[in-house]
Amino acid sequence: MVLGRLFRSSFRGVDTERKRIASELHDHLAIHSISFSEDLNELKNRLQGQDLRIIERLENDFSIFRYKTHQIVEYMYPKVLVELNWESSLELLANQLSIGKIKVTFESHADSSPAGDWLYHTYWAIQELITNAIRHANIQNVQITAIDEDGEFILSIHYRATEEAKKWIESNSKFKPGMGTMIILDRLSIVDAKMKIEITDGVVTHSIILKNENSNI
Asked: Beta-carbon neighbour count of residue 92 at 10 Å?
């Protein structure tokens, strides 16, 4: 009980700090972007030739910096988490994790979802799970699906059962969980979720099962 409270308190502190940093980055970027852009425009009106081209390159570099910073802010604390929307949040997560040859997709067959405040911990648990799978299982395609049935909300993460995936899953079952797995389990314990792993027909499925008080059943 005491350890559980400490874990929950620790995660709440981390999450609050994550939100604070993201908010401050967003606000400072907005304020300083306005003044910096005005200064650049004033210089552009005064200069010409090579000096003007240097300022234009600087303006382009600043646009890239601003875009990348917005990406960091969105990654640290996605806006959809504030809105507590399960479908939009998981669609965003799939898009963020789709990098290069890695393709993550999401589809929902759920008519209802649990309380929105459960979304936050589930979101970060799924992110950690998929990141670990990509790192350890040598996979490129991941499918996230959501369904609700029998009063439960089930999120399933599917990917090919490569030899690396089988070894990784077997290692997790035999030995003490690594830091990534511990983070996943701790996050899910906060929202009283269960997780199970199955390998069927060459596909690994991680199922995260939450009680769904909003179910029509």
From this structure: 19
**CATH architecture group of domain 82-211:** 2-Layer Sandwich (3.30)
The sign one gets for the Cα dihedral 54, 58, 63, 64 is positive
| Residues 6+ positions from 81 with CB-CB distance below 8 Å | 89, 119, 120, 123
Q: How far apart are CA 189 and CA 4, in angstroms?
A: 9
Joined tokens for residue 208: 């995260």
Positive/negative CA dihedral, 183, 189, 191, 197: positive
155-170 pLDDT per residue, tens: 999 999 999 999 999 8
* pLDDT tens digits, one per residue of 29-77: 766 777 788 788 888 888 889 988 888 888 888 888 876 776 676 667 6
pTM comes to 0.68
Q: For residue 79, what are its two tokens?
A: 């806006």
As a whole number of angstroms, the distance between CA 185 and CA 179 comes to: 10
Nearest to 127 by CA among 164, 97, 155, 85: 97
